[in-house]
Amino acid sequence: MSRAGTKLILGIETSCDETALALIETRGEGASFECRVLGSLVHSQAALHSAYGGVYPSLAKREHGKNLVPLLHKLLIETSELMPATGARGEVAIDLEKLKNEVAPQNPELYEAIAGAAFLKHIPAIDLIAVTEGPGLEPALWTGITFTRVLSEIWQIPVVPVNHMEGHVVGSLIPSDATNGAWQRLSDIPLPAVAFLISGGHTQLIRAEKLGHYEILGETVDDAVGEAFDKAARLLGLGYPGGPYLSKMAQEARDRGIDAPVKLPRPMLASGDLKFSFSGLKTAVLYAVGKAGDAVSDDWKRGLAREFEDAVVETLEKKLRKALDEVGAGSIIVGGGVAANHVIREHFKTVASEYGIPIYMPSQHLSGDNALMIAVAGAVNPKTSKELRAHGTKKLGS
Ligand code: KG4
Ligand code: ZN
Questions:
Q1: Preceding peptide of 135 cis, ω within 30°
Q2: Would you say 27 and 5 are in contact if contact means Cβ atoms under 8 Å apart?
Q3: Is 29 within 8 Å of 5 (Cβ atoms)?
Q4: Which residues have a Cβ under 8 Å from the Cβ of 153 and sit 6 or more positions away?
Q5: 97-107 pLDDT, tens per residue?
Q6: Is the minimum distance from the CB of 13 to ligand 1 under 6 angstroms?
Q7: Cβ–Cβ under 8 Å, residues 226 and 240
Q8: pTM of the entire structure?
């Protein structure tokens, strides 16, 4: 314990193309659990991956290897005012020969960064490290896990593995991501809840009996919803990641009264279950672009982006309603990068008010991948659900 009754937890997240670290302080348990955010840093690699139109796993791994150590240094410096007695636990001698054998063969960049970081000799007042164990890109995940193992060994700090998707669920229950030192409780959610995880790697409807007890009700049979946004955006020649670009074009079409040039399918709308499929929608965009040929102007793209977003929203909304009916849900939790989409947020809010139940959606910082959600998830629920764990090997991207 760092101070009377409080714990300092370092969160580490490297499941995809964001290198993220966060430091939180917690106190209490169960209903009286409270946390405060000391720092949360995210280093996005999106610009590097944009040339590939998606996340390139070995590049992500190398970048995590390069960035984790300097990002940790920055976090420790930025939080030193709020963190009690940094380095109070004294100094350690780091056995670089041993680390070279253990880390350098798989992660040369990570080893080089560790070998050059004198600050690692000072043991910080951290009590626990929470690290994303999956699901995600294996080489990227392993870089974060390896770094965690090294820190755990040299500083003698225990580790708790965290499921990335559970991180997104918990992230939406953190009232504020502000690093103002204020203590806060997680939102007290009426249960059971329906959690809707919509990201670049997943589209899942989940029944949450309580935090840590999840049952997957339905998920995508092919592309994830964020992946569909990214692929459609790529076909329209927009930037990466495509979701925000495509959504902006769709909004411009609405503002300017530009209609859809073609009708796109509403995939799995009539399937009668809670499964999703987005690859057909992407293919429909591909055909529409091919058929339009020279007629593809910026306004044509705007109209198609609008139709694409409408098709996605309609599908997500219908399945969400079905899940709420099946579960008899007391609340809705939305998580994942696509939760940043304004149209989706508005539609989900309307659904929640029709059902007369609260909805919890992440802030901008917490909707994309971050380590704050991992640190808090590790603090409230050191054991992750078996069922989510079973999905831990699912790869992101195409
Ligand atoms: O959760 P996240 O940061 O990473 C994964 O775990 O996948 O989600 C990233 C995804 C990308 O596919 C990105 O295009 C999408 O979230 N996204 C959006 C928006 N902002 C991010 N999709 C639609 N509209 C947005 N405004
Ligand atoms: Zn994510």
A1: yes
A2: yes
A3: no
A4: none
A5: 999 999 999 99
A6: no
A7: no
A8: 0.92
